[in-house]
Amino acid sequence: MSAILPPAERLWWKQPIDKLEFIWVAIAFVWSLVMFGMMIWWHIYGNQNLSNETYKTTKEMFAAKAQAVVDQYTVRTETDQQVPVVKPPAGSDIYLIGRLWAWWPIYELEQGKTYKLHLSAMDYMHGFSLQPQNINIQVHPNYEHVVKITPTQSGTYSIVCNEYCGIGHHTMVGRMYVK
Ligand code: CUA
């Protein structure tokens, strides 16, 4: 038997399965079940991949909802680009926009309070990565991702784009305050 030459018995699938081959197939099958179970286990106990809901939306609808929250709860602006710093009431829905190449706006949240964070993109796919928490969510245009977040530690968090989105990808950073 050779792995290089064509098989002597050309109708190899009509041959009985070898015991050793059967053992390997069985090992691979059991391991695939373990890996499948791990996805569920990791989701519950991994503390990393948050449960989220996704809805269809449009860029215009999402931008309007974000703008409404910004108009109502902006407390100051920051950086040269005059990015609004928004302090919404605890428990409210907050909207974060990803676009070439910025996250908008900056939110200031209260420690221990729960918020519903909505994410969407205005142009291409971006990656919402919250540092140093290691929370990662893909952000797509025309889809609204909703995640419940309860910040447990105060401080300044960085939002980094972790899906390559063009020449300015490495500059696509934002921030979030927890007080
Ligand atoms: Cu946005 Cu990379």
UniProtKB/TrEMBL annotation:
Q: Where are the transmembrane segments?
A: 21-44
- MF terms (GO), sorted A to Z: copper ion binding; cytochrome-c oxidase activity
Every Cytochrome oxidase subunit II copper A binding domain range = 89-179
One GO cellular-component annotation of the UniProt record comes to: cell envelope
Q: Which UniProt keywords apply?
A: Copper, Membrane, Metal-binding, Transmembrane, Transmembrane helix
Tell me where in or outside the cell this protein is found: Cell envelope
Q: Which CDD domains match?
A: CuRO_HCO_II_like_4
What protein name applies here?
Answer: Cytochrome c oxidase subunit II
In terms of InterPro entries, this protein maps to: CcO_II-like_C, Cupredoxin, NosZ/Cyto_c_oxidase_sub2
